Amino acid sequence: MSLEKMIALHPDVGADANEALAKAARHAMLCSLMCTSCADACVAEEMDMRQCVRTCLDCADVCAATARLATRRTGQNIAMLRTMLETCIRACELCAEECARHDHEHCTLCATMCRECAGDCRAVLPSVQ
């Protein structure tokens, strides 16, 4: 089942489901998982990866919270949703910058996912009013 369909089935949404918001929520969920996995892989590296672990875990938490808020449609709090999307963009940018400093494939994949997630959140912001 698709996230778009689930949101569209909500009584307060119906045919007006926001596909861009659903896409941002889906990528935020995936980004949370990628960041968590990258942090775990960083722990296993022989070099000091503390800052990367911290940044990845912070980003994972922000992304997970953003995905949850984006899929709640009853009694929406638009100001809160916009704040979370903006925070997710910044957390993803910071995580991508940190991961880009390392020559590990898991960091490269994480940075790519963070950039995609930030782009999706940025794209949906103008429609969240």
TrEMBL record:
Coiled-coil parts of chain: none
CDD domains in the record: DUF326
Signal peptide start-end: none
Domain of life per record: Bacteria
Gene3D superfamilies: 1.20.1270.360
Protein's name in the database: Four-helix bundle copper-binding protein
